[in-house]
Design brief:
Blueprint (H helix, E strand, L loop, with lengths): L3 H13 L2 H8 L3 H15 L4 E4 L2 E4 L1 H25 L15 H18 L5
Antiparallel strand pairs: 1-2
Helix pairs in contact: 1-2, 1-3, 1-4, 2-3
Amino acid sequence: MLDTRQLQYFNAIYEHGSLARASIHLRIAASALSHHLAQMETRFGTPLFSRKPRGMEPTAAGHRLYGHSRSILRAMIAAETDLTDAVDKISGPVSVGMSFSAVKAIGVAFVTQVVRDFPNVQ
């Protein structure tokens, strides 16, 4: 079974296009990334990247795994955030619609107040 660390490593290789750049970003040895990638490829029985002279190119399986990996990691972050935030804490995305004249009159003061009073509102 994959773990979150392997998914994060895979995503870094995918997003940075090379083991070297991903290892710098993650601050781990390129050999450790290579080892985890080899384990994943063995587990799935297919290459996830084509090795090129100037980096790594995702295979079709790599593209599919990246879509799943991003969804899984986002869901895990959302679950952790949901469970660690206080029940009564106001947070999350908010959209506000105002006419141009309302924005001119109170827009900046309104946004400043909301950001100060509700720092977890986006």
